[in-house]
Specification:
The chain is an all-alpha fold. Helices cover about 85% and strands about 0% of the residues. It is elongated.
């Protein structure tokens, strides 16, 4: 009976709410790592952003696979490969967005990161995860 439940994809609205909760957790890891590496260690914010986004991505994959989209029964290796492709796109867009907003508008990098994360999360990540990674 448990195997059948594992194969049932989470309904769209519920997965959207769960996805936002998972995003908050992953983004917290991302921002903490980015802030620590930039302001404490002294690494350039663009590199720190990439490392932070990668750490947040690992948290996101775990939560999305098991809780958000309920796709534990699928081969994790296939999901991980598709997730990697989606996250590379997301990290690239996030890094480009942070750089563009920081350099163009002179905003502090964490504010630029917040703006970028919300835009990419709503317009790219949820749909890529639901319909490509954890389909």
């Amino acid at each position: 009976m448990q195997a059948k439940a594992d194969n049932q994809k989470t309904p769209l609205l519920l997965s959207w709410f769960r996805s936002n909760a998972a995003s908050i957790a992953a983004t917290s890891v991302d921002f903490a790592a980015t802030y620590f590496l930039t302001d404490v260690v002294g690494i350039w914010y663009v590199i720190s952003n990439t490392i932070g986004a990668t750490a947040g991505g690992a948290v996101s994959f775990s939560l999305c696979r098991g809780w958000v989209f309920n796709r534990r029964s699928a081969k994790w290796q296939h999901q991980a490969l598709r997730y990697l492709l989606a996250v590379v796109l997301s990290i690239g867009l996030n890094t480009l967005g942070v750089w563009f907003i920081t350099e163009t508008f002179g905003l502090q990098y964490l504010l630029a990161k917040t703006i970028t994360a919300v835009i990419i999360g709503i317009s790219v990540n949820f749909f890529m995860f639901r319909y490509f990674v954890f389909k």
